[in-house]
Amino acid sequence: MSKRRSSVSATNGAASRETSQVSPPTIDKQKLLLSSDAGHFSLVRALHLADLITELNGLCGILSLFSSMRYCLGDPSEHGNLWAALCFLPLGLFFDFLDGKVARWRKKSSMMGQELDSLADLISFGVSPAALAFALGLRTAADHLCLAFFVLCGLTRLARFNVTASHIPKDASGKARYFEGTPIPTTLALDALMAWWLSNGWTHGDLPGGVWMAGTVLEVHPVVLLFVVHGCLMTSRTIHIPKP
């Protein structure tokens, strides 16, 4: 994902973000606040404006999760909560883009921001889509394993980014030249697909492709393999997608 937190100069040995050059004094100041200020609201005071916007990305993912759970507890024929779960995810993407814009505008980035970015993305574009797929009807044991694989791929991709971002070639402005593997927000393509299923009333037993090996321990909905493929694309090291 196009991160606002991309690179710290090699001479400082600090961690990097994917979209903006980070100045050492900014990082040192926030580190000092986080480690030495013991006040009740010290953590809030240490956050930059861009960090607070990142929190809104995470909030959208959490609300999507709750909406999926509310659907599972209610009438399966009432799809209002499913639509709400779907709508929160592109809103999370909006905040994911906005935090980078704000970080570059204010010229404030940090290691804290990089970690917040990854954690919020995991909730909004990893866990929440998997929960939504479960709510739609991918509920067999094999479905669970495939969805768990998808989430773990997203987790691994984000962790790899945090470790390797400083080694990806940069352009003159300090931005990484390409994404290594598909960015995790591309899971919105799966969300759009699920929205199409829902608009046609294809939930539970009506999901496209039906069920394979029904009645056995290997019972699975073949459409769940789309999540497996997407997880593999996210963790690929051979796919290099040029950044806009």
Automatic annotation (TrEMBL):
Known pathway: Lipid metabolism; Phospholipid metabolism; phosphatidylethanolamine biosynthesis; phosphatidylethanolamine from CDP-diacylglycerol: step 1/2
Parts of the chain that traverse the membrane: 81-98, 119-136, 142-160, 211-233
Cell compartments where the protein resides: Endoplasmic reticulum membrane
InterPro entries for the chain: CDP-alcohol_PTase-I, CDP-diaglyc--ser_O-PTrfase, CDP-diaglyc--ser_O-PTrfase_fun, CDP-OH_P_trans, CDP-OH_PTrfase_TM_dom, CDP_ALCOHOL_P_TRANSF_CS
Swiss-Prot/TrEMBL keywords: Endoplasmic reticulum, Lipid biosynthesis, Lipid metabolism, Membrane, Phospholipid biosynthesis, Phospholipid metabolism, Transferase, Transmembrane, Transmembrane helix
Molecular function as annotated in GO: CDP-diacylglycerol-serine O-phosphatidyltransferase activity
GO terms (BP aspect): phosphatidylethanolamine biosynthetic process; phosphatidylserine biosynthetic process
EC number: 2.7.8.8
The protein's enzyme class: transferase
Annotated Polar residues bias: 7-24
Topology in the lipid bilayer: Multi-pass membrane protein
Chain residue ranges for the region called Disordered: 1-24
CC terms in the record's Gene Ontology section: endoplasmic reticulum membrane
Catalytic activity as recorded in UniProt: a CDP-1,2-diacyl-sn-glycerol + L-serine = a 1,2-diacyl-sn-glycero-3-phospho-L-serine + CMP + H(+)
Family: Belongs to the CDP-alcohol phosphatidyltransferase class-I family.
The name this protein goes by in its record: CDP-diacylglycerol--serine O-phosphatidyltransferase
Species name: Staphylotrichum tortipilum
